[in-house]
Amino acid sequence: MRAALFLGFASMLIMAAAPADARRFAPLDLAVRTAMTKTGARGLAITVIERGKPVFVRTYGARNASGAPLDPNTIMYGASITKAVFAYTVMQLVDEEKIDLDRPLATYLAKPLPDYGNLDDYGNWGDLAGDDRWHRITARMVLTHSTGFANFSFLEPDGKLRFHFDPGTRYAYSGEGMMLLQFVIEKGLGLDLSAEMQRRVFDRFGMTNTSLKWRPDFARNLADGWTAVGSVEPHDERSLVRAAGSMDTTIADVARFAAGFMRGDGLSAKRRAEMIRPQLPITTRSQFPSLQPEAAPADRWAGLAAGLGVITFAGPQGPGFFKGGHNDSTANTWVCVKNTSRCVVILSNDVRAENQFPAIVRAALGETGAPWGWEYGLPAN
To answer: Rounded to whole angstroms, how far apart are CA atoms 55 and 325?
Structure first.
């Protein structure tokens, strides 16, 4: 019965964009089709959220090289949008006083962080022996990407985890930091992150086709990906739960999450506001490489800051926030305007589509002021 209700809801999402709204969303539909023609992208899924409701859910193109169509229930890689969903989960723990955003994470652990050694499932904590700055890291620093770590230690020349700056002093994107917070939740609080996110997020919103870990039933309707050179990359069957980015999902499920988040479901008003307020100014010309030097003040993006698990910005429609996701064959983005409670989420199984995300978002929401140049490495404007 419950599954049937969820399937019915998915159908309603699709129907909502059919005859009544066809004309209203015709410019967006044209923008997506134009973007795919320009880039050669093979597959894309999109939803528009207005005042806590999905009003448009549509898919375009193929999910694999055989040409099987992408549909609203096709399993796609969530990539780093996982981090925003993780942050939402963490803020529930903050609401319940299980975690304090500003309490050092080390105080939740039974022994010093480096004593846990290097753990394949989490991180190379043993590499931090001799540098006591790990004592300072808090959940807020993790969620604002200000731990001082590289994105991942395997990107370091010697593969070792180290601090590049004092924790909390600047923004530098770090999946490794997210994994530290997951480690503390699991080993310090004794919680199973996969079970917590299932209960707190996926079950709450009826996200029946979403998981942090591969499920065999996903194979029935699965999206492979296309790389920048147009080669096919099979979908990765991720066996490890990774707060930094292991989530598989669908556009129908992401629509449910984004709508619920905008309604304020599951969080106190205070914690939701904390997630999307500017926490830490961002001082680099672009997001990547993550450890680039800070830019001169005149070359920084005005109004750009880290929220908790998202990036906040100031635009012509007022404040907004966004979160991207990317790998060699995936391009995702979630962009919201706070004052109008309008959002767009794009999931693409073809990384080439990313080049046209600014045009698609503009067609969906108007000019938001989202910092595409910072996100994708273009000059400040």
So the answer is: 23
Task: Note if the bond before 289 is cis, omega within 30 degrees.
Answer: yes
- H helices, E strands: number in the chain: 10, 12
pTM for this structure? Answer: 0.94
CA 316, CA 310: separation in Å to the nearest integer?
A: 19
Strand partners, 322: 311, 335
- Cβ-contact 345, 254 below 8 angstroms: yes
Say whether pLDDT at 39 is over 50.
yes
Domain 2-97+210-376 in CATH 3.90.180.10? The answer is no
The span from the CA of 344 to the CA of 335, in Å, is 5
Q: What is the pLDDT of residues 139-183, one digit of tens each?
A: 999 999 999 999 999 999 999 999 999 999 999 999 999 999 999
- Alpha-carbon distances of 189 from 32, 288, 312, rounded to whole Å: 44, 33, 29
Within its chain, how far is the Cα of 299 from the centroid? Answer: 26
Token pair 């479901």 in the structure block, residue: 265
State how far the Cα of 334 lies from the Cα of 258, in Å rounded to an integer: 8
Cβ atoms of residues 367 and 361 within 8 Å: no
Assign residue 341 a region (left: φ > 0; alpha: ψ between -120 and 50; beta: otherwise): left
Residue 19 has what pLDDT?
54
Give yes or no for residue 338 having a pLDDT over 80.
Answer: yes
Where are the domains positioned within the chain? 2-97+210-376, 100-188
Q: What is the pLDDT of residue 377?
A: 80
b/e for 109-138, b at 16 or more Cβ within 10 A? beeebbebeeeeebbbbebbeeeeebebbb
